[in-house]
Amino acid sequence: MTMSEIFLWPGTKACERLGVDPEGEAGLIRWMVNTLVYLVASLIVVWIVVV
User: Which residue ranges traverse the bilayer (predicted)?
Assistant: First the structure.
């Protein structure tokens, strides 16, 4: 498993669950899911560091 596959894993699993091809035109769904996952994770880390 490559580093890019590890980073794209949440979006890939979401696309598989929805029944769409993450490598095709529905790759925007994978991008959106990954963005939301890493946004929430980053905000939690920032909140922990600040408080």
Answer: 28-50
pLDDT digit string, tens, across residues 1-51:
899 888 889 999 999 999 988 888 778 889 999 999 999 999 999 999 998
Sole residue written with tokens 């091809």? 21
Other beta carbons less than 10 A from residue 11's beta carbon: 22
Q: 19 in the Ramachandran plot: left (φ > 0), alpha (ψ -120 to 50) or beta?
A: left
Give the separation between CA 7 and CA 29, rounded to whole angstroms.
Answer: 15
Enclosing domain of residue 33:
3-12+22-50
Give the separation between CA 50 and CA 35, rounded to whole angstroms: 22
Q: What is the pTM of this model?
A: 0.80
